[in-house]
Amino acid sequence: MGILEIRHLRLIKALTETENLTRAAKKFHVSQPALSQQLRELEDRLGAVLFERTGKKMIVTRMGKLVRQAAEKVLTELDRVERDIAKAVHGETGTIRVGVHCVLSFQWLPGVMRKFNNMYPHVELVLNNSHTFIRDLKSDAFDLVITAFPIDHPQMTHVRLFEDEIVAVSSHSHPMSTKKTVHESDFEGVTMISLVEKSKDLLYQYYLAPAGIKIRQFMTIEQPQAIIDLVRSGFGIALFPRWSVKKFLKSGELCASSLGQGGVRLEWRAVYLKSKKFPVYQQEFLRLVADDPLATLLQQ
């Protein structure tokens, strides 16, 4: 019959993983309506409904599960064959240098590193902090940098990784803890603790400073756990990705407040030079790091 193509299998796999058309569309760098049209065309050709639409959530049907199972087997085998051929042709030794703009990324990167090391045990993977990532990439200090910083540079391109919500984290004794949503004025007179200095703190520069907010004190501490301990003691508040403090929120040790109506979200990216020629193993690392890196962490 020849109805199913590789692109269809990738589509079904992405939709079952994300359960959301918008998030799946971002994986393929296409619009949500375009991906929705592809799904409708596939269902029409198969004569079967593969997903039930429930609000924004996509629920896989029995027929959809059959396609998903086939997709997982076929795509896994294709990836293996491609890697084997690439290793035979190009070899599997070398180095990949990854810069991290935010130390919180070290919470989910180890899982990616383990997978990569299993596939390429003779490739050296070097990780380090990158606070000036444009300069670092242009000087070839790193092959790619993981950052949530807005990218607008003619020599750079990127792969989208994920979005997350930035929340104000406080102790139960802090006045902010009772508010599900906070606004700029709620930061007036508070002590704010950050991983980076004030001039490099995106949320302070783009959220608080433009509103003319005068905080009591701005502290820079480069250790996430030390910041958590200070916030937990009631010394001040901090702005963190919600996923990075999930276990403290779940245990009730900390409270989180969204920033404004609808919250503030950041998009994380793997950034690299447009002119960069990646060997096969670096392409594979980029694929791994873009393949839903927070899934395991968010399920914990």
TrEMBL record:
One of its GO terms (molecular function) is DNA-binding transcription factor activity. Pfam families: HTH_1 (PF00126), LysR_substrate (PF03466). The keyword DNA-binding applies. SUPFAM superfamilies: Periplasmic binding protein-like II (SSF53850), Winged helix' DNA-binding domain (SSF46785). Keywords: DNA-binding, Transcription, Transcription regulation. It comes from the Bacteria. Residues 4-61 form the HTH lysR-type domain. The keyword Cytoplasm does not apply. Belongs to the LysR transcriptional regulatory family. This is Transcriptional regulator. It comes from Desulfomonile tiedjei (strain ATCC 49306 / DSM 6799 / DCB-1). The lineage of its organism: Bacteria, Pseudomonadati, Thermodesulfobacteriota, Desulfomonilia, Desulfomonilales.
